[in-house]
From TrEMBL:
InterPro entries: Prolyl-tRNA_editing_YbaK/EbsC, YbaK/aa-tRNA-synt-asso_dom_sf, YbaK/aa-tRNA-synth-assoc-dom. CDD domains: YbaK_deacylase (cd00002). Keywords: Lyase, Protein biosynthesis. This is Cys-tRNA(Pro)/Cys-tRNA(Cys) deacylase. The gene is ybaK. Its EC number is 4.2.-.-. Belongs to the prolyl-tRNA editing family. YbaK/EbsC subfamily. Residues 31-146 form the YbaK/aminoacyl-tRNA synthetase-associated domain.
Amino acid sequence: MTPAVKSLKRAGVDFELRHYDLDDHHASLGEYVAARLGLAPQQVFKTLVVSVEGRRQPVVAIVPVTETLDLKALAGHFGARRATMAERHAAERATGYRPGGISPLGQRLALAQLLDDSAAAFERIHVSGGRAGIELTLATEDLVRLTGARMVALAARD
């Protein structure tokens, strides 16, 4: 049981735990997960760890797997000019999860979290369960409440 699953059980939140087999022949893990589990890809969200100029700790961005994170927009939400993807080791150290399986729930440190506002269109969304091969489905409002995430525009849209 991962810290993400434990945190949901401890909070008494209704969620669904789904497992999938990994296959090394996929370009996008998130889109692979959506296809493997028969989920709408726009409802499957990836958890990204980002370093923001002027902040001591990294932040978390939760965006649909079908979209790209707009780093400049994310930086702006923190009053900064620049943001970059956190180094692999820094992401693992801050969250307690290995990249490819980072969950927004049950993280080692209480990091600031932002959720792309497209999530508001869905009653339930899907996020990593804290390890590659595990996906969680839960109410969007529960994710926001448990993580303290602010819902803002994060995806790079044309």
